[in-house]
Amino acid sequence: MADFFDQLNDILFLDIETASLTEKFEELPERIQDEWLKKERLIQSPDHLHDPGALYFDRAGIHAEFGQVVCVGVGYFQWKKKDKKLAFRSKCYSHEDERELLLEFKALLEKKKWILCAHNGKEFDFPYLCRRMLINGVALPEPLQISGKKPWEVRHLDTMELWKFGDYKHYTRLELLASVFGIPSSKDDLDGSQVNTTFHLDKDVEKIKKYCLRDVEVTARVYMAMHPQSDDLEIEIIHLYDSKKDHKD
């Protein structure tokens, strides 16, 4: 058990929320508009053809070339050995300027030798962050720099991949895992499909941040459920909503 908690302290759980780069398709630079129309032809159903640009608002946010990072939620455990209690501390990084947001997150990643963990992180969160960093002229921090590394040198965990146990299922929702493990939902008043509207039309970043932090907590709880240690293990949740507060290991 001691080894498990020693490693647990080094895991940074994270979740990102993304939105389309602009509110309206017409606001994109002309070259990017042309590229989106090519992408749109690939992702729309042949049986349900749309007007050019019609899918942009609903679909662009999941593509790093046409989207942006709205916020990054992070969390980590601290083991209180004397009390046999885990504290889970989390906070959310956000900024009006995406580049500044990514620089703040990069600074966190460079504070220690983190192991990164996200749900579907290997296919979405990690590559999305890498692409947006490079587009914004931000050098990749070591935990996200996988080029030239051997597979066992990459410190990335993915709760969706862990749940596969070697099978070839394509996708398992975080909400499904939360349901089967009896973990409270993060989707009470917002879900991923509503983030773009909440960001661009409602201008409610705080609502998105709170949703993002709940997803981070659910991911961490799912990870713990996959590594059962003790039925009476208490977890203290500490949310820091202000990203300007210092992160302490």
What is the gyration radius calculated from CA atoms?
A: 19 Å
- Total beta-strand segments: 6
Q: Report the structural category.
A: alpha/beta
How many helices does DSSP assign? 9
Order of helices and strands: HEHHEEHEHEHHHHE
Widest sheet: strand order?
5-4-1-2-3-6
Biggest sheet features: 6 strands, mixed
What is the 3D shape? globular
* Estimated share of beta-strand residues: 15-25%
**Could you name the ranges where pLDDT drops below 50 across 5 or more consecutive residues?**
243-249
- Kindly report how far apart the N and C termini lie: 21 Å
Mean pLDDT: 89
* Helical proportion, percent range: 25-40%
Pfam families: DNA_pol_B_exo2 (PF10108)
Domain Predicted 3'-5' exonuclease PolB-like: 82-234
Q: Would you write up a description of this structure?
A:
Residues 82-234 form the Predicted 3'-5' exonuclease PolB-like domain. The protein is α/β, with parallel strands linked by helices and 249 residues long. The chain is 35% helix and 19% strand. The protein has nine helices and six strands, in the order H-E-H-H-E-E-H-E-H-E-H-H-H-H-E. The protein has helices at residues 2-8, 30-43, 56-59, 98-109, 125-135, 159-164, 174-180, 195-200, 205-225, and strands spanning 11-20, 67-80, 85-94, 115-118, 156-158, 234-240. Strands 5-4-1-2-3-6 form a six-stranded mixed β-sheet, with helices on both faces. A hairpin with a 4-residue loop joins strand 2 and strand 3. The longest helix is centred in the C-terminal third of the chain and has 21 residues, at 205-225. The radius of gyration is 19 Å and the shape is globular. It starts with a helix and ends in a 9-residue tail after the last strand. 33% of the residues are buried.
